[in-house]
Amino acid sequence: MKRTISILLLAVVGVSLGACNTIAGAGKDLERAGETIQGAAKR
């Protein structure tokens, strides 16, 4: 189950990186992804 969640999160990060137009946008996307991963790890 954890592997599936990890793969889905990586896919979301990949799509969000492809959608952002600036380096600042990429940084914000990565920050949000990191927060999501930390939240999932605490469970």
Q: How widely separated are the two ends?
A: 13 Å
Order of helices and strands: HH
Biggest sheet features = none
Residue stretches low in confidence (pLDDT < 50, at least 5 long) are none
Structure summary, number of beta strands: 0
The helix count comes to 2
Note the beta-strand portion: under 5%
Rg estimate, integer Å: 11 Å
Give the overall shape, derived from the CA principal axes.
flat
Task: Please tell me the total number of domains.
Answer: 1
Structural classification:
mainly alpha
Mean pLDDT: 78
Please outline the helices and strands:
Elements: H1 2-19, H2 23-42
What does this structure look like?
- This protein is mostly helical.
- The protein has one domain (2-42).
- It has two helices and no strands.
- α1 runs antiparallel to α2 (23-42).
- The longest helix has 20 residues, at 23-42.
- It is flat, with a radius of gyration of 11 Å.
- The protein starts with a helix and ends with a helix.
- 0% of the residues are buried.
Give a short summary of the structure.
The chain has helices at 2-19, 23-42. The chain has 43 residues and is mostly helical. The model has no long low-confidence stretch (mean pLDDT 78).
Features:
43 residues, mainly alpha, 0% strand
